[in-house]
Amino acid sequence: MDDSRTHQHRSPAAPAGAPPTDRPAAQRPDRPAAARAGVFCTIVPPHVLDKLARAEDPALHEPARRTLERDALQRTRRRITTVRGVRATAAGRQPSDQPQRTIYDAGNREELPGEQVRAEGEEPGRDASVNRAYAGLGATFDLYLKVYGRSSIDGSGLPLDATVHYGQDYGNAFWDGERMVFGDGDDEVFRDFTLPLDVIGHELTHGVTQYTANLEYFSQSGALNESISDVFGSLIKQYALGQTADQADWLIGAELLTDRVTGVALRSMKAPGTAYDDDVLGKDPQPATMDDYVRTGDDNGGVHINSGIPNHAFYLAATDLGGPAWERAGQVWYDVLTGGELASDANFADFARLTLAAAESRFGVGDEHRALEKAWSRVGVPTGA
Q: Residue-wise over 214-240: b if at least 16 C-beta within 10 A, else e?
C-alpha cells in the first residue's frame, strides 16, 4: 500500500509545479509519463482512502487498504494496456440510437469481466446491483444521445459493459478504458457503488473524454478531466429526474456514504469543501476558488481536489441561467470537450476561454456569455487572451 501522506498548501497565486492559468500551453513543463498514459479513474479519491487506511478500527482500515492495493494494480495495468495510445473506435461500427449493454458479475473476485448476467433487452433479475448498473448505463446513453446527439461514449455506438460485485468489500468504482467496475463497499463507510446514478455517469464520462480531448491526468488538466466527469455525472442524474438547475442537489455520490459518516456526499459542486467533515475521513479539501488552490504531490497534483474550482464555475453559470442545466451550460461544456480545440494539457484558463468562445458561437453574446464570464470571475479564473 502507498502510505504516502498528502502535503497540501493553499495559495492565491498560480501554484509552483502546476501550470499558471495564464501561461501558454507551449511554455508549460513536461508532464510526468503517468499523465500521458491511459487514465485510470476512480470515484473515491486516494486521499479519502488513505485517511481510512490509517484508521485504528480494522473494520475501516482493512477494506481501505485492500482497495488502495487493488487500485494501484489496476492503475498499473491501465498504463501497460495503453502505451500505444487511446483505443481506436472499432472499424465498421455504425452509430446507433439504442444502447448495447452487458452486465457481468465478478462474484466478489478480482477477475474481469466476470460472469455475464444480463444482456441488452433482457428483463431485470433479482440482483439490484445488476439492475442499477444496467439502468445507469442506459441513463448515460440517453443524455448523450438525446441532448447532444452522441451515440454512446465514443460517438459511434460503443457497447457499454459493466462489472458489479468486484472484489471483497471493495470501496470504489472505476472506468478502466473498456468497462465500468463497481465495488459493493464495506457497509461501514461506503454503500454499494451502483446506488448513485451520478457516479455511473461520472465514470462513463471519463470514456467520453478519452475519445475526445483525452485530457492528461495531471494538475489542472487532470482536475478538468475530473470536473468534466462530475459535471456530466450531475447532468445525467438531473436529466433522468427531470430537474432544473435550481431543483438539483449538485452533490456527487449523495447515496454512497453510510449513516456512520458525518457528511452528505463525496463532493459538492454548489459548495466545494462542505461535502463531509468527519472524524475518520477528515474535512472535504476541495476549494471553490483559485484563492484556495491546493498544491499537493499526491493524486497526480490534486486532480480530485482542485476540480472543485471548475465544478463551482459550472454550478454558478448553470444556476444563473436557470432551467435545465444540460441545455445551455451543459451544451457549452460539451461543445468545448468535443470541439477539437481543447488541448490535452489545457489548464483552467484555457478551458474558461474556450467556454466563452463556444457560448458566443452557439448562442451569441447574450445571457450565456455573460453568465460564464461572471462564473469564471467569481472562482478567480481569468478569461482574457
A: bbbbbbbbbbbbbbbbbbbbbbbbbbb
- Angle at which helices 219-241 and 197-211 pack, to 10 degrees? 130
Please report how the helices 348-363 and 308-321 are oriented relative to each other, as an axis angle in degrees rounded to 10.
20
E-strand ranges in 66-129 read 101-105, 115-119
Taking a C-beta distance cutoff of 8 angstroms, is the pair 12, 290 a contact? yes
Contact 177, 210 (CB under 8 A): yes
Alpha helices in the chain (DSSP H): 33-36, 46-53, 58-81, 128-148, 197-211, 219-241, 299-302, 308-321, 329-338, 348-363, 367-379
Rounded CA separation 115/294 (Å) = 42
Instruction: List, in order, residues 6 or more apart from 70 with CB less than 8 Å away.
Output: 110, 167, 170, 172
Q: Which helix (H) or strand (E) holds 160?
A: strand 160-164
Task: Give CA–CA dist 378/102, Å, rounded.
Answer: 43
> pTM (2 decimals)?
0.88
- The set of cell numbers assigned to 30 is 513536461
H/E element, 42:
strand 41-42
**Alpha carbon distance 216, 235 (integer Å):** 23
What are the tens digits of pLDDT across the range 188-238? 999 999 999 999 999 999 999 999 999 999 999 999 999 999 999 999 999
Active site positions, annotated: 203, 304
Are residues 212 and 339 in contact, defined by beta-carbon separation less than 8 angstroms? no
Length of the chain, please? 385
